[in-house]
Write a structure and sequence with these properties.
Blueprint (H helix, E strand, L loop, with lengths): L1 H30 L5 H9 L3 E5 L18 H4 L5 H7 L3 E7 L7 H24 L4 E3 L5 H7 L3 E8 L9 H8 L2 E5 L25 H13 L2 E2 L6 H10 L5 E5 L13 H9 L3 E4 L11 H14 L7 H18 L6 H15 L4 E3 L19 H9 L4 H25 L1
Parallel strand pairs: 1-2, 2-4, 3-4, 4-5, 5-6, 7-8, 8-9
């Protein structure tokens, strides 16, 4: 009897929590009610995936939970379950991010441990909240999970630094659920050159070990991600990979000349090889540079320390002070229209079969008018207004990246 009562209470609490999350999502959606009903209805019908969710960075914050509702202005987070419901975000690729550090035995071990811990946290999220999230391991899982009412959790690795010189670790991460892999981040590593390393190229593309990793990723059925990689790396990935390449969060260099962005010629080569660019919401306007502003921001960050260890009230204080500094210097912020310009440009260059969305949520993304994932229906509205069809939007919002993942799976099966 006691066991029965305990289970009954547990189920009641679980159901109550689910209803509260849905209510929070409804209230957030009301705040974005400016999207016409036809666009919102279409958005809800589509399978909506984003390929770069850095939300695991918040998992170490005291008291922070993915199932609670948060506000960007005070919390600085952009993804949680209620806002996913409100914005019709069915899931996507949740990032195992590792900052580049020393390429020493100690540094490599620390990177490996960090990546394994982030992987564990993401898997725990799906297991702990199994009524709301589910780990996806194949392209076919996304539709099944979405139809069950849960959110889709694919895992991707940003930066191959945790592999060190041991490419067998890629299989370990694959077995833990990783289905997308980006070899490099802001600085060169043992696998590849970065687009943004101030020292310039080290390997002039992929290293010999990096080329082995490409072959191993193909063998395992992992999609290769060229965001953050140098132009030479992208060229070599397109040439060497037996399956299409993804740019999980990149934008258009023709509009904003930044090394993180990709020129039109390479976009066409990517598309010709079956690949996809997922449009970023970072590096879409010229960078603001002011030495005094940078000095004040650095002092603020030094005073508060790592944001991802701060309690909610300290994060709110930090956010207020950072906004005040930006306002003092008149720092411009990219807008939804800026994001849309990059999206429409990519669509013009390579068409709706080769473009998707990867806005770098919780990793620096978001723009004025689209601060968090609750605002995603605005993209659907804008694409409809630009003349794109429901079939086009189905590709852009998830069909294209799933096609690439399916291609990787089929290549694995043919071996």
């Amino acid at each position: 009897m006691q066991v029965f009562q305990k289970n009954l209470v547990s189920k009641s609490v679980s159901h109550l929590a689910a209803h509260l999350a849905l209510l929070a999502g409804f209230l957030i959606a009301r705040a974005h009610a400016d999207v016409p009903s036809n666009a919102r209805a279409l958005h809800e019908r589509l399978l909506v995936l984003d390929t770069h969710l850095d939300t695991a960075l918040h998992f170490t914050r005291p008291g922070w939970s993915i199932v609670d509702s948060h506000d960007f202005d005070s919390d600085l987070s952009q993804v949680d379950y209620p806002r996913m419901v409100a914005g019709g975000l069915d899931g996507g690729f949740w990032v195992i991010y590792t900052a580049q550090g020393p390429r020493t035995p100690e540094g490599l071990q620390a990177a490996r441990d960090s990546a394994l811990m982030t992987t564990a946290r993401l898997r725990e999220m799906a297991a702990r909240h199994h009524d709301k999230f589910e780990l996806a391991l194949s392209a076919g899982d996304a539709s099944r999970i979405e139809k069950s009412g849960k959110r889709v959790v694919y895992l991707s690795m940003e930066n191959g630094y945790p592999l060190g010189k041991d490419i067998s670790l890629l299989r370990t991460f694959y077995e833990l659920g990783v289905r997308m892999f980006g070899p490099v981040h802001f600085a060169n590593n043992d696998l590849a050159d970065s687009a943004t390393d101030p020292k310039g190229p080290e390997w002039h593309g992929l290293s010999p070990l990096g080329k082995e990793v490409v072959a191993e990723a193909n063998r395992l059925g992992i999609v290769l991600d060229a965001s953050h990689a140098s132009d030479d790396v992208l060229d070599q990935l397109i040439e060497l990979s037996q399956t299409p390449i993804v740019l999980s969060h990149s934008a258009c260099r023709a509009l904003t000349d930044h090394p993180r962005n990709v020129d039109d010629e390479r976009l066409r080569k990517l598309a010709a090889a079956g690949g996809v660019i997922q449009i970023n919401s970072v590096y879409i306007t010229p960078a603001y540079k002011n030495a005094e502003h940078e000095k004040e921001v650095a002092a603020l960050e030094a005073r508060y320390g790592r944001m991802y260890t701060l309690p909610a009230e300290k994060v709110a204080e930090f956010a207020r002070e950072r906004r005040a500094i930006d306002a003092k210097y008149g720092v411009p912020r990219a807008t939804f229209d800026d994001f849309l310009r990059h999206l429409l440009h990519a669509l013009k260059v390579v068409g709706p079969d080769h473009v998707g969305i990867g806005a770098d949520w919780d990793g620096g993304g978001g723009v004025e008018g689209m601060n968090d994932v609750a605002a995603l229906p605005r993209i659907t509205e804008a694409l409809l207004a630009a003349g794109y069809s429901e079939q086009d939007l189905a590709k852009i919002w998830g069909g294209n990246v799933l096609r690439v993942l399916r291609s990787a799976e089929e290549h694995k099966q043919r071996q």
